[in-house]
Every structure is written in C-alpha cells, then in structure tokens.
Design brief:
alpha+beta, two-stranded antiparallel ribbon, 5 strands
C-alpha cells in the first residue's frame, strides 16, 4: 500500500529525519539551484533510469537534464526554485525495495546575465 506525505514549506526547511523522498527533494533542489556547481554530481542522488517530466512534456533522461543545467549556468546570473507543495508517494514493491514518486508544484525565478 502506498504512503503519501504532503509537504508545503520551502525545500530548505526539510529536516534530515523526513521521509527519504523529501530528503531527496531537498538535496536535489539545493544541487539544481547552484549555478556554479558542476551538475554532473546530480546522478549520485538519482537512480540511472530516473526520468523527469516537466509541464506535461515527454519524460527527459538524467543526461538531458544535465545538458540543460550546464547551458543554464552559462546564461543565468541567478536561479531559484520556490515550491508550493510536494507529494511524496512511497510504496513497497513486493518484498523488494520501496519506490518513491515525487510530485511537485513549484515555480522558478531567473535572473539573466547582462
């Protein structure tokens, strides 16, 4: 049976003892928001087959998201996510590991380089 946790505060306020999905969200958003960081470190947080779906578009691979993040760092002076609400839906897969699905409603704020 799935367990759902609803979170409606800043990802920066997610405590270390929160659900694994929310801790992943905090670490992932902190990594994504840093323009000066090499985004190639992100795969350490994700399973190799992770897919991202943005605004109803087809799923994007981790590699495609990394490519976008590298380009973003060359064009933006500041980038920040602001979350409205997150749903962490976790379920046990038989006798194996659990699976986490994060559903997010957020906005991003961008300042372009001059």
């Amino acid at each position: 049976m799935a367990q759902t946790i609803i979170y409606d505060e800043s990802h920066e306020n997610i405590p270390s003892n929160a659900s694994p999905g929310l801790v992943l969200l905090r670490d992932l958003m902190n990594a994504v928001d840093l323009l000066e960081q090499d985004p190639s470190l992100l795969p350490e947080l994700l399973a190799p087959d992770t897919k991202f779906i943005f605004n109803g578009n087809p799923p994007s691979s981790v590699e495609k998201v990394l490519e976008t993040l590298r380009m973003r760092g060359t064009k933006l002076r500041k980038y920040r996510h602001e979350g409205d609400i997150a749903w962490d839906v976790a379920r046990k897969m038989g006798h194996g590991p659990s699976c986490t699905r994060l559903l997010l409603s957020w906005s991003s704020k961008k300042i372009l380089k001059a």
